[in-house]
Amino acid sequence: WIPVTNYREALQQIAFACGAYVTCSRAGLVQIYKTTLASELSSYDETILKSQKSMSQSLTLKTLVTGVEVTTHNYIENTDTVQLYNGTLAAGTHTIIFNAPMHDLSISGGTITTSGANYAIVSVASPGTVSLTGEGYIDTTQVYGVYNTTLDSTVKTNVLTISDATLVNASNVEEITQRVYDYYQMRYLQKVKLYAPSAAPSDSVLIDTLYNQQIGGVVEKMTLNLTGGFTAQTEIVGGVV
Description:
This protein is mostly beta strands.
């Protein structure tokens, strides 16, 4: 179940559950690809040369995440009747939105023309009182966690929790939680200005960094400046190779 929301957030719920990312960078299409973590890379889409970089760059270590906990959602139909709407409606068609998933809808004073778990479109022939009821679901939740058990006891615990991913259930939670945990272990963040970059957000790159090292990672953010000679303030997350 996905709550009533906008297209962007609904797509984010789907992508998170199936291990994908969504991009429309430098394209007229919304494109969906399987997520590849920096730790999984054996080759790279682009190698960024020194001539493509400015001298202005920084390399930081992101906050250590010592564990990840993800809540599963298992929706089971119940037979408890809930009053979804009760009021006067003018003649015509009306959309009634629910704040929780519903099933087995029933109406008086109008006709249900279309319905889903989140809404009902009702047709009213003449002005009058309309009453809409339905039966709901029980959301049975469970928390699944992945933790770093090798750390010294002096290391401060920092557990990331995700509870509002409603497409996560018992069948996919283990894979999802491990993927989120693995992502947060890629802690090196390089910020650099690039000149006329061919790389785009979500591309994997190999780039020289400070201290005669290289970062292999994924471009997570680019802010383009076309009027300033096509430069891009770029953020790359990955690990030292």
